[in-house]
Amino acid sequence: MYYDWIGGYGYAGYQEAASAHAAAAGAERAASRAENAMLQLQDQIDRQALLIRSLLVLMDKKGMTNEAEFRALLEEVDLSDGRRDGKYRPQQTPRNCPKCQKTNSKRAVVCMYCGSPLSHEM
Ligand SMILES: [Zn+2]
């Protein structure tokens, strides 16, 4: 027909719009999943903060440590992974124990075989 190109054009336009709509819906679902994951992480952080705070208050109440002593220990542990960054992130490769030479997991702080402290030099 003479006007077939109009119908064809309209159909192509519809397909484009449907495709854009599907892409937008996919992006919306991805954003929703990311927001849910973020909320779950925030929830876990809040729960860990409660646990850590409770342990600190308990240690203080029992006279096991005080804030100054704890802060000094915090710095020592922070430095033990080779970086003073307010975080603790052990080396990411398996390491051999300096005492018994057995291989320990990348996150181990002490040797799981003999209990020797494992160094975390970078
Ligand atoms: Zn060992």
Question: Which features would summarize this protein structure in a list?
Answer:
single chain; 122 residues; mainly alpha; 2 helices; binds zinc ion
Description:
This protein has a two-stranded antiparallel sheet. The chain has a domain of 61 residues. It is elongated and about 85 Å long. By secondary structure, the chain is mainly α. The structure holds zinc ion.
What is this entry, summarized?
The chain is mostly helical.
Radius of gyration: 28 Å
Strand tally: 2
Principal-axis shape equals elongated
Summarize model confidence as the mean pLDDT: 86
pLDDT < 50 stretches: none
Order of helices and strands: HHEE
Give the distinct bound molecules.
Answer: zinc ion
The strand order across the widest sheet is 1-2
Q: Count of helical segments?
A: 2
Structural class: mainly alpha
Classify the beta-strand content into a percent band: under 5%
Question: What portion of residues is helical?
Answer: 55-70%
* Biggest sheet character: 2 strands, antiparallel
End-to-end span in angstroms? 75 Å
Please describe the topology of this protein.
Layout: H1 4-61, H2 67-79, E1 95-96, E2 103-104
Antiparallel strand pairs: 1-2
This protein binds zinc ion.
